[in-house]
Structures are given as structure tokens and as C-alpha cells.
Amino acid sequence: MLQRVLELSRLNSPRSRALGRKVVTGCLIGVANIIPGISGGTIAVVTGIYEPLLARISGFFTAYGGWRSNLRFLAPVVLGVLLGAVGFAHLIGMLLEQLPEQTMLFFLGLILGSVPFLARRALRGRPHPVALSPFLVTLALTVAMALADRPPVGEPLRELTLATLVQLFGTGIVSATAMVVPGVSGSFLLLLIGMYSTFIAAIRELNIALLAAFLTGTAFGIVATAKLVTFVLKRFPAPSYAAILGLVLGSSLALWPGIASPLSGLTGLGAAVLGFVAADRLGAGRRNS
Predict the structure, then answer these.
(1) pLDDT tens for each residue of 96-138
(2) Domain for residue 78, yes or no?
(3) N or C: which end of the chain has fewer CB within 10 A?
(4) pLDDT tens across 163-203, in order?
């Protein structure tokens, strides 16, 4: 009995809770990356893991005690991303089909839950109004992207050839850039370049060859983009967060599903509140920085 109590106490230790939070965060990032209009980078900001995640990736071999320490930090997040993208692909598809308003409003609430945190970062030190101009630029860009027509989904590629290898590697780089930059939907970019159906089919059918080519490009793109974004955040923190705030607010426009009936509106409101509270519980909304 005593041994069982000790086991439960270890499971409920701060370290275990931190590990579980990273896995849950990764799941949300993975789910976001398969829904057109939602950015995995935005979810990373929402959950308060954005900056440490970029810092660990960009300085994998040198920062924070070396690669072993960084691997321990990143592994549960990566595991969560894979679980979210692969394990929840069917569930998210079903929810978007059966409960589209509630699903999208949940993510809308989740994203809006990060706005107070981002605003504090953007306004830190009372920056000059010119320094906040990135907010207007990125807000305009993401609103334009949200209002753009969705291109038709083409037939998926299912065989790995040299041509598809190059396509998938490049697609991985494009998707990675969108994953790292908040407010830019990787799935929407995949739609624009005609590779969304291939990506979803590869996940659902567990086409290992295609997924390996895509993930290789993704890994390369994540590291390169993380280094660039980390540099910009360190050199220009307030304008950078102003730009991120514009990206996040602009991208939220794409999530508004409309309200079909009073009942769906009421349940959708509940889903949005749940998402907002989840953002607070997962980190960003509770930070007083």
C-alpha cells in the first residue's frame, strides 16, 4: 500500500505535471497544424512555450546544458505533436464535420486567451508608437490571408519518386516556417501549393515514405526558422511581440464559423470560454511578464 502511495505521489509530482503539460501542449500544436486557418506557432504562444521552444531548438547543441537537456525538454513536446497530428486526425475531422461551430470557437477562445500576455510583451517599456507598426502590418497580412478564397483540394500523391521527394521536402520547409511563425496557417499554405490532400492522406494511410520526406524537410525548416526568429526576438522584443499580436488577432478572423442557430451559438460560446480558460491554465494567460 505504501509503495502504491509513493508511485501516485511521483505521478503527481511537479516534474510529472510539467511533463504532462508539455505532451498536452504538443498535442494541441499537432492538432492545430492539420486544421486550415490555425497555426501551430500560435498555439505555442498561447501555451507559453513559444520562446523556450525556439531557444531550445536553435541552440540544441550549445544552450541550456547541451543536447541532452534540450532533448529532455523537446521530446515530450514532439511526442505530443505526433500524437496530435496522427492520433487525432480522424477525431478532428469528425468534430469539424459534426460540430464545426463549437470546434472552431474552442480554438478561437484558445487563441484569444493569449492576447493579454502578448499585449503586455508588446507594450513593455512603453515603446515608441513607430515600434508598434509591425502590429498593423502583420494584422493586415493575416486578415487578407483569412479573407482569401480557399483553393480546391487536389488528388493526393501516394508514391515516392524523385520529383515527389523534392516536392515533399520543400513542402516540409514551407510547413515548418508556418509552424514556427504564429498566425500563419501551415495547412492553409499547403492548400495554396496543392499539397494538403497529400499530407492528410499520408497521415491517415500511414505512408511512411512520404511522411519521412515531409518530416525531413520540416525538421530542416524548423531549425532554420527558429534561429532567425530567436535572433529577432532577442534584438527587438517589443516590436516582435507587436508583430506576433497582429498575426494572432488577424488569424483569429479565419476561425469565425458563423452561428447557425441559438443552440449552436450557446454551445459555441461555452466552447470558446473553455478554450480561453484552457489557454490560461496552460500558461500564457497566467504569466505576469
Answers:
(1) 778 888 888 888 888 888 788 778 778 776 666 666 788 888 8
(2) yes
(3) N
(4) 888 988 988 888 887 778 876 767 777 777 778 888 888 88
Number of domains in the chain: 1
Give the CA distances from residue 231 to residues 50, 237, 238, in Å, rounded to whole numbers and listed in that order. Answer: 14, 10, 13
**HSE, side-chain direction, 13 A CA sphere, residue 9:** 6
What letter does residue 84 receive in the DSSP assignment?
Answer: I
- Residue 189 maps to a domain: yes
Residue 279 falls inside a structural domain: no
Q: Is 269 domain-assigned?
A: no
User: The domain containing residue 59 runs over which residues?
Assistant: 17-256
C-alpha cell at 220: 530542416
Q: How far apart are the first and last CA of the chain?
A: 44
pLDDT at 95 over 50: yes
